[in-house]
Amino acid sequence: MISVDVPIPAADGGPLPADVFLPARLPAPVVVVRTPYGTPPLWPEAAVLAEAGAAVVLQDLRGRYRSPGEFVPGADESRDGRAALDWIAARDWSDGTALLYGTAYEAYAAWCAADHPSVRGVVSRQPWPGGPPAMDDELWWRTELGTGRHLRPGLYDLALARDPDLRGVLADPASWPVAPGPWPPTPSTWKAQARRALTRVRGAHVPSLHLGSWYCGSATTTLRQAALARDATVVMGGWASPLTHRLSPECAIEVPDGDDPRDLALSFLAALAAKQDPRKAVGDRLLTLGAGRWDDTSPLPPPAPALDPAPLRPATARSTLRHDPADPYPSLPHSADLSVIGGRDDVVRLAAHPPVRWYGAARLRCRVTADAPVELVATVVHERPGGARVRLCDGTAPISAGTQDATVRLAPVAVDLPEGHVLHVELTAGRHPRHRAPGRALTLTVELDPGTALLVPRPRKESP
C-alpha cells in the first residue's frame, strides 16, 4: 500500500507532508527518510524495503517541496524529526521502532533525531556538513541543493560560466542567481551543525552504517562519526555521487567494481527490520585507491597512528612562487583530469614514486615565508601511466605575513600506487575556486626537507 501527501504534524503543529509505503505484514518497523531533495527519487528504494517487510516514511523537510515554512539549513531537524517519530510510533501500522536513513543533508537530519526512543538503527551516507568546506563545493551545494523550495540542477555550472573565477559572488553575493547566505563560508556557518551531529552520534546506542567516498569532501566527517559511534559498520569506497561532486562525460575518475552504496544501505536496513545482525549483511570494508583493491577490514584509522616519512623529489629544496590575482592557480572538480592545467610557475610541485602507500590523514611540513597573509593549499594528485592526473585529497593551512613553520593536515585517504604511477604534492597560494585565492599579488617561498616533509600513517598490515 502506498499513500502520498500524508500530513505529519511538525514541532509547531503545522503539517509536513510525507509518502508512506506499507508492507503486506503489519505492524512493522519503519524506515524514515526526511529529505530536502524531494521524495520521488526515493520511491524505488522505498518499494524494495516494503517488499522486504519494512514500512517506509519519506517526508519533505520544512520549507522544501510540499512542506510549508522556510528551509534554514541545520535549524529545524531535531524538533521536527522528533515530532515525526512521535507521530509514526503512534500509528497502528508501526511496531514502535524506527530506522533512520539518508544521504548528505538527509544523513544530518537522521542524526538530529537519533536520540528518539523509537530509533533502532541509522544508515548515514556521505553526511553533511563535511567540515571546513571547499568554496566551490559549498557554493554548488547552496546554489543547486540548499536554498529555496526545490533543487536547481545545472544552475551552478551556468552561473559559473558567466563568472568563472567567482569574483562577482565574492564581491557581491547578491549578484549570484540565488541568495547563497553568509559568503564566503566561515567556521560559524557549519561548526554548530557539525557539533550537533557528532553529539547525536556519540549518544546513539544503536547499530549504524557509515558509507563514505574518498572522492567526497565528507570523507573526514564519515570517519569521524563512525569512530564515535557505539556499534558502527563502515564502508569507504570510491563512489561518484551527484550529491557530492559534479561529473562530466570526460570524467577522469576510475571507480572499480564493487557494491553499490544504495544496495549496501538497503541490505543493512532490511536486516535490521528482520531483527537480524546487519553486520553479516554488509561488513566493514575499505577501497584502496591506485591499487583498486577492496579489503574486508575496518576503514577506521587508529586515533594516533605512527607517522613515517615518504620521500619526495622536488625540483629544488627551496622554491618561490608568485601569485597573480588576475590569474590564480586553478582548481577543477573531482572528476577532472588536472593535466589540462599544464605547466605553471605559481606552484611548488613535488613527486613520489612507488612504493607509495598509506591509509589515513597524512601531513606535510614546511617552512613558509610570505609577504602577506595567505591560505597555503597542499593538493595530492595521482598520475596514471597514461598521463591522466586526478586529485586524491587536499588540505590547507593559514599563513601570516613573515616566516613560520607550517603543517598541512591532508584529508584522509587510502593509497597504494603500483609501479608506473606517480604521486604529486602541489603547493599553491589558494586554488581557485576550490580554495579562495588572495586578492593581491604576493610572493611565497617554501623550504622543506624532501626526505621528511611528507609524513604518512604507517600501514596496519601488509597488502595481500
Automatic annotation (TrEMBL):
Q: Where is this region: Disordered?
A: 292-313
Compositionally biased region (Pro residues): 299-312
Keywords carried by this UniProt record: Hydrolase
Which chain positions lie within coiled-coil regions?
Answer: none
Protein name (database record): Xaa-Pro dipeptidyl-peptidase C-terminal domain-containing protein
Keyword Endoplasmic reticulum found: no
Source organism per UniProt = Sinosporangium album
What GO molecular-function term can you cite, just one? dipeptidyl-peptidase activity
Gene3D superfamilies found in the cross-reference section: alpha/beta hydrolase, Galactose-binding domain-like
Q: Does the keyword field hold Signal?
A: no
Q: Which domain of life is it from?
A: Bacteria
Q: Start and end of every Xaa-Pro dipeptidyl-peptidase C-terminal domain?
A: 266-454
